[in-house]
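Reminder: ligand-aware prediction takes two inputs, not one.
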Amino acid sequence: MMEQKTRNIFFLGKGGVGKSTSAALTALYLAGKGKKIQLVSLDPAHNQSDIFEQRFSGKPVKVTENLSVSEVEIDYWVKKYLSDIRTQMKRNYSYLTAFNLENYFDVIRYSPGIEEYAILMAYHHIRQKAGATDYIIFDMPPTALTLKFLTLPALSLKWLDNLLKLRDKIIEKRQIISKIKMGKKELETDKIRRKLQQQIEDYQKVKTVFEDPDKTLLNLVMNTDKLSFSESELIVRKLSEFNITVRNIFLNKYHESFDISVIRKKYKKCDIQVLPESNRSLLGKAALSDYLSHLDSFLTF
Ligand SMILES: Nc1ncnc2c1ncn2[C@@H]1O[C@H](COP(=O)(O)OP(=O)(O)OP(=O)(O)O)[C@@H](O)[C@H]1O
Ligand SMILES: [Mg+2]
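Here is what comes back for the chain with adenosine-5'-triphosphate:
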């Protein structure tokens, strides 16, 4: 398979700091430089329709020559995720129909973790369909959900590793029993084991992309207030535990009274993009482009 060149750019940060606005500005900026861009909102509470003053949906809509925008319908992916599990379980455990499997799905729908898996599934789908896109810019939900999403592949791998060990024990026990009861019998390739191995491979791929700075760029958006400072520190620390590195800081709603050296000292390894507080509305393509045209510099991607 051809190596995929498309890079991810994630915009993350505390609620309301300007993730969606920064993502939209970056998308317009890069598209203006001739890069093929997809701007994708993965936030269940979408903002891009309001920012571009244009109705978006799960299907990408062209906004400029090089930029298309979509807002992922999380509910659709939750349903798809559940129906895929249902199909798999029916296939693998046909005897479960006796236990009225259907009833469990109403409960699973509201289980913790389902939304993250659904978003991961949507992400995977978008990457696969990226084609000649240079950058996919992801406008992320506020911190808690975003951290769960980014660390999900690594955590799932830990689970799957244990499940695989458990499965091997079951296979071993079965073998012993069948030897006693039926004599020597060729062990069939185990369906469940194969499935687990496939999942391990899939999550490993996503994890590798998240950890690779050539494939994934993390932009942390913050403001000059204390709360967004401390939440940003938490994000950087938490992600570094998972080998995921924040590369750029977008210091948004900046005003001149603020001393940037504080940020520079704290985040020595990060590049800093300063986005001044605008006294005009930042809604609509024209307003965003106007804001960009007044910036002294923009990060090189
Ligand atoms: N540089 C700026 N100057 C002035 N206003 C700004 C600036 N950046 C963002 N805003 C405004 O701040 C508000 C929040 O911005 P935005 O929706 O981009 O934040 P967010 O981090 O995506 O929020 P949420 O966590 O709700 O998704 C919006 O009204 C937006 O127009
Ligand atoms: Mg937003």
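The beta strands are 7-13, 37-41, 61-64, 67-71, 135-139, 216-222, 248-254, 271-276. The chain is about 50% helix and 15% strand. We will return to this case in the review session.
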